[in-house]
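Query form — protein Nitrogenase iron-molybdenum cofactor biosynthesis protein NifN

QUESTION: What is the three-dimensional structure of this chain?
INPUT:
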Amino acid sequence: MAHILPQTKSAGINPLKSSQPLGAAFAFLGIDGAMPLFHGSQGCASFALVLLGRHFKETIPLQTTAMDEIATIIGGRDRLEEAILNLKARTRPRLIGICTTALVETRDEDVAGDLANIKRKRATELTGTELVLASTPDFDGAIEEGWSKAVTAMIEGITRPGTQKRDPTKVVILPGWNITVADIEHLRETVESFGLTPVILPDVSGALDGTVPDHWVPTTYGGTKVEHIRDLGAAIQCIAIGEQMRRPAEALQRLTGVPYVLFESLTGLRNADRFIWLLTAMSRKQAPANVRRSRMQLQDAMLDGHFHLAGKQIAIASEPDQLFQFADFFTGMGAEITAAVTTTGTSKTLQIVPADTVQVGDLGDLERLAAGADLLVTHSHGRQAAKRLGIPLIRVGFPVFDRLGSQHKLTILYQGTRDMIYEVVNIVQANQHPPTSGALDPTCSREMQNELNSSSLARQ
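ANSWER: The structure tokens for Nitrogenase iron-molybdenum cofactor biosynthesis protein NifN are given below.
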């Protein structure tokens, strides 16, 4: 069990984490016809918009209530109502996902009560649009908590409660924020290959996969449909990926009785095997030939990659679930986690990270702890630390803005784990320094050492 070291610095140096409201907006972007709405100042939304745009290289639908000084003093209810009605009239969204920021949370505004009054007062104007509130103050948590709260809020606010007639082929999948667009597409294809019907919440593969619609759409144009969220109770099973998704999975079980199974990670042979075994049991079908072939390819890749990664020292900085995902992957290949840094210390996942200690901190802590490591694993803001330390960097997580296609990187199940092995090994090989001829000649090495010893004695 890893020992979790709390943050002790009074100021962050090269921050590692992104804010809760950004994580909530990220989740709302995975809903078809959605519009995330930041309830706070314009700067909060602008910062999130820049990060999301740079990461995905796409147009991001995101709005704000634009609280100014006067609204901050007298309260933001009127601004919230005005913003909701304007969005309804201009963009006709199927869902408006409201993400609170530190500005309104610090004032301790009753945003939930305000929203309930708006729904009751403006019921006619808001017909056809769901309003969902996620309480996500910037001063607490990080992107992982924001994502989880948004998904929980959608389930609690939209899903029809009570026991429903179960569809034996319907499966609810709740992916964490660290599951990429390519991962979600691969998940869907794998589940469908067993004859099952997956409902993925949220599904960013439909909204942020790089497709360009034939006409301008002011909201998201793909992802999970609101109707599907409403009917989640008809599923036979819920699969949550990452400890962050335990909360929404429990909410679904409490509302509808749908049982859930939680996977801390789907990367690595053991984790992929567990997932395939579950699909086999649910469908009562043998794993398809392409799945079995992918498993054999992964076994071969593990054998080949082990010679290059065994004994390597790895330094990782990320949100808790992604930290475990990649730490588990690297230790499974024989590497050692010598530095592990994360954003918050509340996740239960941190206790099973295969490292002696996990530091809650920033990229300054990673740079301090990573000296002597063979590889750095974090997002694009870690590039300066990697350059100063002279250590190669593999970019994972959010944001990745200095490389193209990060959302299409496959990291899970047999195929994704195989691809990760190849990527990591190629980076390690590209940064190896071949030994010189003198270093290979033991006689030459002894002669050089004797000369150094003679020089030292002469100076004494």
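ADDITIONAL NOTE: The two ends are 51 Å apart (CA to CA).
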